[in-house]
Amino acid sequence: MSTLLISIVLAIVGGVLFTLIGLISGSDETATMVPFTLLVILLGAPPVAVFSFFMAAVISKHLSHAAPTALMGIPGDTMMVPMLDYAETLRKLGVPHIALRKMISGGIIGALIAFPVALLFAQFLGQFADFFETYTGVIFAVAAVIIAYFSKGKWVSVLLIIPFAFLIQGLNLVSFEVLDKNLSISFFLGIAIGPMFSDILIALSSTARKSVTRAEPQDYNLAPEIKSWSGYFPNPFRILTGLQKVAGSIAAFITSFTFTFSPTGMTALMGELIGSKIKGTYKKATTTLSVMNGVTESTYIAETLIPLIAFGLPLSPMALGPAAALFNAPPVFSVDHNLHHLMSMGDFFVYGLIGLIVGAFIAYPFIMNFSRKATVFIMKYISQEAIIGMFIAIVCVIAYYEGQITGLLVTFTIATVGGLLNRILGVGSGAQFMIYYGSGWMMAVLIGL
Predict the structure, then answer these.
(1) What is the pLDDT, as a whole number, of residue 439?
(2) Which of 17, 45, 90, 421 is found 20 to 30 A from 177 (Cα to Cα)?
(3) 333 pairs with which residues across the strands?
């Protein structure tokens, strides 16, 4: 079988597989993408086919994971946490299926813009590899300050950067003493479930419970289905308004360059910046969601392509998480012998495009055509409590897989502290993610840890 045919087949496999995985709420990106990518590598697939598989998986998962977020109010993965409030607003208006269509159409535009921009920027940055490798810690720390200031808490978020970084590195030190390895997924999960977990804690508190108590059940009214396209394949450019297309394109273009920043932080930052300029509940929520989901695609693509093509080193949050297997997959790949060394710029363009096109053609029409039916089914037959219980169970399994009991303790310690900081003081999840990435450099400079 030719390399091109293997690449197309693996792209189809990646698109179908991660379209289904993305529909499962709480399916962590790192915990799902790393094992499957490793499997493809270890089975002996050509490097270009591995890349096609990964790109198809990225776009299909990031399109379908919008479904549980928009329809149920449960984050599809950690990237969707900043969108929960806006998705909740549109669910109360009875148009969660409209929110979903806006989100995934914004995602398609974000991917189409980020891919060529990231390729060109990676080629340009190749000459500065030594600089970025030397100052990664400083870049993470500065980004943490910027994102913290733009979160709801503003100055209190900035003031809490060092204490929160100290907590993270303290827990990491304890984990290393127990397990003889550093944890990462457990910290991710703790920050991701923090707001949800803090609501549970508040509900259990006799003094704070009244703030989350409801006198009567909430009513949801679904708007009638209005299909604005013919056939099975809708045009994403016709789903979005002119303002949404322009705002989403600008946000995707800008975030294609910010490859060292937290994807979740950039999603929150760009969405809030653009949303703050828009009046009207429906218009603001739909535009912000389309922009945010476009940014999730652009940051994921850029944070994979730029460090991989320019340096061959995992110098971005994405490269340290879901894309880690592309940089280091012993015994096939290592930091001295990976896709950076085995593929040309032409290979990255051709086989990356194959992955994106195949993944988009599988996931996008499937979600667009069945979004309202999924809404009705989920709201009639699946309780919110069951979904939250399933989500917490998935988190426990993944945290235990990484660090056994220590992993669970780390996850729920971070969830407790981070969640209460988020709910009470307005320290956003994006700021917390960036503090996590910069915490190692901060503590090394301040106390020599």
Answers:
(1) 87
(2) 421
(3) 329
**CA distance linking residue 139 with residue 176, whole number of Å:** 25
DSSP tag of 336:
T
Secondary structure (3-state) at 48: helix
Residue 371 near residue 91, CB atoms below 8 Å = no
Residue type, 446: L
pLDDT in tens, 304-323: 898 888 888 777 777 766 78
Half-sphere exposure of 61 (CA within 13 A, CB side): 33
Residue in this structure with the two tokens 């090394």, named with its chain if needed: 444
Distance CA(390)–CA(398), nearest Å, equals 12
Half-sphere exposure of 13 (CA within 13 A, CB side): 18
Residue 77 contacts residue 28 (beta carbons within 8 Å): yes
Q: What is the pTM of this model?
A: 0.70
- Report the C-alpha gap between 3 and 11 in whole angstroms: 12
**Nearest alpha carbon to residue 261 among 110, 139, 121:** 139
Decide if pLDDT at 223 tops 60: no
CA distance linking residue 359 with residue 56, whole number of Å: 4
